[in-house]
Design a protein that fits this description.
Length: about 425
């Protein structure tokens, strides 16, 4: 029966068509209105917002959600109990134990400094599976061997391992030689993982020849993308998937687009030019853990494409990782994607680097090569932004941990201020 429902949602997502953006938005508003009515009837947190329009609902974030988790979720689940369940599943690596009352319980990585819970009912898992297959696989007739290179497994992903879909979880917390050997033996047709995990596969591919490579969970810079594409001789697709939902993915032309048949996007603009924004997400299909006007910390570079679904030029990093540099009375906020581009100008070769602000005018360059050239390129960028002098420190190449998201640009000053407050 579950297979039939997956096929139903696969076909629903595959066959749904909108002739114009106007039609899409009208359809969205109908779905949102019905969804908000249901949520206000079943979530204690939202009961006072009954019959109000979406723009009058409060802005949500991870901190507010965790503070109000028990009142917000519609399954009467307790946050402390869920954290214990999910943490024990991670500790024992027995992820099939992270289910309570047919509801999957998972944990975010805590990149922003706070780990969050996410819930998905059985029906929501099936919807997720059918939708993601429709977005990323050409059909369900041919067999697919899908390998997920992840820090933690989840019954949410295990829903995918049905029928012609074979599923393999590569536990990247284990030694590279161990999970890579198992991956080669599985011989995947589709590889999904973080940019750094896929990059390791590209460096030690040992006969791996997937038909589809999909980057997820962290920023994919243009240089990393080019390296992976060259190694596997095929374009890299992207998924924008986080605890807040399956938000966006590459289309058939490899253009990233919001999944606006599942979610509604409000841009919170980060600059006057309106080139970058943080998305405010409303998922009008998730009921167990409502995601309504949820402000993400991510930086999105707006796409210029005029398709029915809005496009994304790039996912540039976290707001907390913008550099805040100061020279006497002059200050500037430097977006992470400007740093990526400045480093890319230095060489056509792949550079392993991390740029970290440690004080208001001190930047540490960790790199495996070309320190002077990177310093000069960054100095020019900062000067263009009004910062005439920066103290640079140079260190060896960064040491990455597959248990954590790779961040090429880090602002430790902001992180310390947040911790102190």
């Amino acid at each position: 029966m579950e297979k039939l429902f997956i096929l139903f949602y696969f076909l629903q997502s595959k066959l749904r068509r909108f002739s114009s953006r106007t039609q899409l938005l009208k359809w969205q508003q109908h779905k949102i209105k019905r969804h908000l009515k249901w949520v206000c009837q079943h979530s204690e947190f939202y009961k006072d917002y009954k019959n109000k329009p979406l723009n009058e609902f409060p802005i949500m974030n991870k901190s507010i959600m965790m503070e109000n988790f028990n009142a917000l979720n519609t399954a009467n689940l307790d946050k402390a109990e869920l954290f214990e369940l999910a943490l024990n599943a991670e500790k024992t690596r027995q992820f099939d134990q992270s289910i309570i009352n047919s509801i999957t319980v998972g944990l975010s990585t805590g990149t922003s400094g706070q780990r969050g819970l996410f819930l998905a009912s059985k029906n929501e898992r099936v919807k997720w599976t059918g939708t993601i297959f429709a977005k990323l696989l050409p059909n369900l007739k041919q067999k697919h061997r899908i390998a997920l290179l992840l820090r933690a497994d989840s019954p949410l992903y295990q829903t995918a391992g049905k029928g012609r879909i074979q599923f393999h979880y590569a536990d990247v917390t284990q030694p590279l030689e161990q999970w890579l050997a198992q991956l080669v033996e599985f011989n995947p047709t589709v590889i999904v993982g973080s940019a750094q995990a896929i990059q390791l596969c590209a460096q030690h591919k040992q006969g791996l020849n997937p038909t589809t490579v999909i980057s997820a969970a962290e920023v994919l810079t243009a240089e990393d993308e080019a390296f992976i594409e060259q190694a596997f001789n095929k374009p890299v697709k992207q998924i924008y998937q986080c605890t807040e939902g399956f938000l966006a993915c590459s289309d058939s032309n490899n253009i990233m687009r919001w999944n606006e048949d599942n979610i509604h996007i409000e841009p919170h603009w980060l600059n006057e030019e309106k080139t970058h924004y943080s998305p405010i997400i409303t998922d009008f299909r998730r009921k167990t853990q409502p995601i309504i006007r949820y402000l993400l910390d991510d930086i999105i570079e707006a796409g210029e494409d005029s398709g029915v679904f809005k496009s994304i030029k790039s996912i540039s990093g976290r707001c907390g990782d913008r550099l805040h540099l100061q020279n006497q009375k002059t200050s500037a906020i430097i977006l992470p994607d400007l740093i990526y581009r400045a480093v890319s100008y230095v060489s056509d070769e792949l550079i392993d680097y991390r740029i970290t602000q440690t004080q208001r005018n001190t930047v540490v360059i960790e790199s495996d090569k070309l320190f002077f050239e990177i310093k000069e390129s960054l100095s020019e960028l900062f000067y263009q932004q009004g910062i005439s002098h920066t103290n640079f420190l140079c260190k060896d190449a960064p040491v990455w941990n597959l248990n954590e998201k790779r961040r090429r640009v880090v602002n430790q000053v902001v992180a310390l201020k947040q911790a102190e407050s």
